[in-house]
């Protein structure tokens, strides 16, 4: 089972041993976090502040391209200054300051006040707000009116407030608390939602108002709390009720794993990459390359989830404020789980730890934050010669690098997959619990939700995931081509379509930021390719490239004028392409908490017409799921799969998996389930008919 955020927070005494050398892309160690905090406190001793963020300041791309050996136009950079980026919140005023600290010179290199912004919400604040809410007299009065006398039964999920009409702007740091109760310890709180939401001024640490959620189309002025329990933990289910017909599946690699790890650098067959984690994006993959014969070919400088947003459909207050930016408001790193062997990953597992900071500038260590292992991925390719019955089967294997995050009710498994044929896939496995809303006894959800249990409404919502892909396909200058397939414009009988079966694919190069904002089109089987126009494939006589696709691209259903559309306009398009800019990392803007929508991907793309052809570009791909909850999603949701994929398209000279040995039962230890079945021929046979 995963370790909770609170358990990780209390384990701050655990530290990561100081390394004698840190790669420029490695996350800060616990010792470095402490050192940075000491430097800042030493210089700003007169200030009363908390540390919102202490994280690695990644070196500039131009420096790293030389350091990594891709830019050979000048002498290679061999040493890179180690720097930290720090965000500080002044107490009470909630004024925000940014600092860049050099760990090499032990100095503050820059310090600036940033007006009218609110940085990411931290675990410290979550715990403080939850404690504050329970002590508030107004909250206690609301609970008494609902029949709750014991406040130890009451719980809250502190949420970002989005944009509140009564508290506009970002001069005040605000949160809202979604309220629930439990009938006993470890009871499922989402089975007992309450009907009011406290609004909190975090700077003052005070509940400034309480909003009731009024029943609609009901004879009641206030709902009762549903008392029926809906639990899923094993102690509630009961061991006697577990299925008795499940036999163990054991995954073994008796000769060890096929990957090697040096620090945070990973080699797996022909892939090479670096793994890192930060407080915001969580798991990041850097410097991806593929060994193609004697040539090591660069593919991607950096890949990470830039932002995600979850807009809810109910237009009534306060539900319209429920559109969580799980990356920019809470942080995929800060919300990451400590993973457990045999539960979250199976087989021979390698773990990477993570380290973040608390408000005092102390490190808190998340052991086993990243899981890496290999998986069988089905058949990679197969062909059977029907003339002689000879079959040739090669099974696929993939390298899996993953993390799991918990953001209030939702849990997300985030998986980077690398396949032997050069395919890359990013998959989100959404699970956890539904965000629930209480209904009066005679109330219905209307058009915006479904009753998953008596008086429990699960509202319709969407999940949008935006990947930031920084490509270097055979070099730093790339372009993006859009492909659409059409029925031939020539009618049946025409000399160019005599029998009417013709169809064609039309490529369109996206030349600038105005053209390069586009949506999915399933009628034309639309996909995109990142290409290098400076390297031509010898067979196709066209640029080498990588295909981008997703079967999970949904329209953005909130209206254009909605608050969430203003704050998350990146979700309105499936693909954007922008020139590389090191200050444009997050699709919802760097300070997206309580944002007004003035700083985000759409604003950058539309600011002016910018060239994105044959230059250093960034590709932003958004994939999504529209979640209309089911009764089967309660009390805990089976995993919902949603993903995007990139694969070589006229990049290699042939199938890059041809050199993978064929599969056979002697190697993979497959056996017959029925011992009485007579053996048949192997799936793989040699040319002389001898079975392998």
From TrEMBL:
Residue ranges of domain Copper amine oxidase N2-terminal in the record: 23-113
Superkingdom of the source species: Eukaryota
Active site, UniProt feature: 326, 410
Main EC class the enzyme belongs to: oxidoreductase
Obligatory cofactor(s): Cu cation; Mn(2+); Zn(2+)
Pfam families hit by this protein: Cu_amine_oxid, Cu_amine_oxidN2, Cu_amine_oxidN3
Residue ranges of every copy of the Copper amine oxidase N3-terminal domain listed in the record: 119-212
Domain spans labelled Copper amine oxidase catalytic: 250-657
GO molecular function terms noted in the UniProt entry: copper ion binding; primary methylamine oxidase activity; quinone binding
Modified residues (2',4',5'-topaquinone): 410
Its EC number(s): 1.4.3.-
Free-text cofactor note: Contains 1 topaquinone per subunit.
Keywords: Copper, Disulfide bond, Manganese, Metal-binding, Oxidoreductase, TPQ
Any one Gene Ontology BP term: amine metabolic process
Record PTM text: Topaquinone (TPQ) is generated by copper-dependent autoxidation of a specific tyrosyl residue.
NCBIfam families: PRK11504.1
Family named by the database record: Belongs to the copper/topaquinone oxidase family.
Binding partners and assembly: Homodimer.
Protein name per Swiss-Prot or TrEMBL: Amine oxidase
């Amino acid at each position: 089972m995963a370790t909770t955020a609170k358990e990780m927070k209390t384990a701050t005494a655990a530290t990561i041993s100081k390394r004698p050398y840190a790669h420029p892309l490695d996350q800060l160690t616990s010792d470095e976090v402490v050192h940075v905090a000491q430097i800042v406190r030493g210089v700003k001793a007169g200030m009363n502040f908390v540390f919102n963020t202490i994280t690695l300041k990644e070196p500039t791309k131009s420096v790293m391209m030389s350091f990594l050996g891709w830019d050979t136009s000048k002498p290679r950079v061999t040493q890179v200054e180690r720097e930290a980026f720090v965000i500080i919140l002044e107490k009470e005023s909630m004024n925000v300051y940014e600092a860049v600290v050099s760990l090499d010179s032990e100095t503050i290199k820059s310090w600036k006040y940033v007006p009218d912004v609110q940085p990411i919400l931290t675990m410290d604040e979550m715990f403080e707000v939850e404690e504050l809410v329970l002590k508030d007299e107004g909250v206690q009065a609301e609970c008494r009116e609902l029949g709750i006398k014991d406040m130890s039964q009451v719980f809250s999920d502190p949420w970002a407030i989005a944009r509140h009409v009564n508290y506009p702007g970002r001069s005040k740091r605000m949160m809202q608390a979604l309220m629930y109760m439990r009938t006993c310890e470890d009871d499922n709180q989402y089975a007992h939602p309450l009907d009011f939401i406290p609004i909190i001024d975090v700077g003052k640490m005070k509940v400034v108002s309480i909003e009731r959620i009024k029943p609609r189309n009901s004879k009641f002025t206030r709902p009762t709390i549903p008392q029926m329990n809906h639990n899923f933990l094993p102690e509630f289910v009961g061991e006697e009720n577990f299925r008795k017909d499940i036999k163990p599946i054991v995954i073994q690699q008796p000769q060890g794993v096929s990957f090697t790890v040096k620090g945070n650098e990973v080699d797996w067959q022909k892939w090479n990459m670096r793994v890192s984690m930060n407080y915001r994006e969580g798991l990041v993959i850097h410097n991806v390359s593929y060994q193609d014969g004697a040539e090591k070919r660069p593919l991607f400088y950096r890949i990470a989830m830039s932002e995600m947003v979850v807009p809810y459909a109910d237009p009534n207050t306060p539900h319209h404020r429920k559109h969580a930016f799980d990356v920019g408001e809470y942080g995929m790193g800060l919300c990451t789980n400590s993973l457990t062997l045999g539960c979250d990953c199976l087989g021979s597992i390698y773990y990477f730890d993570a380290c973040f900071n608390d408000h005092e500038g102390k490190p808190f260590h998340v052991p086993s934050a990243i899981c890496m292992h290999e998986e069988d991925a089905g058949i990679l390719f197969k062909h059977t010669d029907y003339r002689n019955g000879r079959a040739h089967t090669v099974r696929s294997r993939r390298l899996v690098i993953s993390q799991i995050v918990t953001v209030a009710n939702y849990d997300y498994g985030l998986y980077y997959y690398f396949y032997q044929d050069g395919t890359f896939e990013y998959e989100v496995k959404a699970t956890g619990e539904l965000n629930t809303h209480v209904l009066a006894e005679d109330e219905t959800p209307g058009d915006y939700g479904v009753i998953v249990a008596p008086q429990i409404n699960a509202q319709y919502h969407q999940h949008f995931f935006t990947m930031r892909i920084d490509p270097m396909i055979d070099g730093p200058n790339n372009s993006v081509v859009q492909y659409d397939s059409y029925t031939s414009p020539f009618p049946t009988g025409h000399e160019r379509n005599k029998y009417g079966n013709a169809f064609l694919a039309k490529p369109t190069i996206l030349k600038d930021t105005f053209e390069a904002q586009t949506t999915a089109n399933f009628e034309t089987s639309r996909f995109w390719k990142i290409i290098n126009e400076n390297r031509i494939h010898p067979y196709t006589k066209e640029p080498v490239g990588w295909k981008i696709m997703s079967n999970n691209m949904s329209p953005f259903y909130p209206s254009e004028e909605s608050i969430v559309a203003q704050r998350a306009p990146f979700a309105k398009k499936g693909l954007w392409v922008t020139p590389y800019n090191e200050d444009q990392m997050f699709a919802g803007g760097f300070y997206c908490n309580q944002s007004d929508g003035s700083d985000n991907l759409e604003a950058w793309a539309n600011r002016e017409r910018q060239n994105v052809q044959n230059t250093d570009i960034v590709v932003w791909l958004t994939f999504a799921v529209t979640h209309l909850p089911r009764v089967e999603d309660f009390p805990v949701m089976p995993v919902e799969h949603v993903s995007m994929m990139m694969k070589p398209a006229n990049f290699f000279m042939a199938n890059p998996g041809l050199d993978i040995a064929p599969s056979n039962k002697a190697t993979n230890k497959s056996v017959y389930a029925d011992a009485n079945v007579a053996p048949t021929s192997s799936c793989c046979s040699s040319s002389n008919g001898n079975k392998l």
